[in-house]
Amino acid sequence: MEGCWVLEIDTRRAPLLLRPEEAVAEGEAFLDALVGELRRREPLLFLDHGQKPL
Known about the structure:
elongated
């Protein structure tokens, strides 16, 4: 899986985020869902060190 994000931020204008706490929560939920789907589709990527596939 590959991805690229480009964010353009004008630091001369404030605030950078209107609701920073909500932005963090939404970002974490998005990444959790992304990793969860990757774990579901590609479980071998998430084996513990030394663990053998079933």
